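[09:14] KT: can someone run the structure on this one? pasting the chain below
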Amino acid sequence: QVQLVESGGGLVQAGGSLRLSCAASTLTFSTYGMGWFRQAPGKEREFVVSINRSGRSTRYRDFVKGRFTISRDNSKNTVYLQMNNLKPEDTAGYYCAAFFRSGSDYAPPPREEEYDYWGQGTQVTVSS
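[09:31] RB: done, structure tokens below
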């Protein structure tokens, strides 16, 4: 069992920045690809970005390209989401998820059913 704990959410004005963190309670963190999803009120959860086990490959949704950056530090069992130039439409609960597959190391897919473990989420609110 892997526990994921997100932090770093909060209230920010449009154009501002936040950095989310997701700490994993596993000694084998480097064997998991990681993803960030978000869910706005009244909407379905959606994929934002993912990163492979080594951190060398990423996958972004178009609406965050150039604004959000995912990274990971395997020595700290943590994945990060740097969010710049935030917009009111980025307001949502943000969730990290762990993806375990043996074999090729690729950025996990955008389908939430493919992920094995989920955090409880952290709220991001962007005011206009």
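[09:33] KT: thanks! The radius of gyration is 14 Å.
[09:34] RB: yep, looked fine to me
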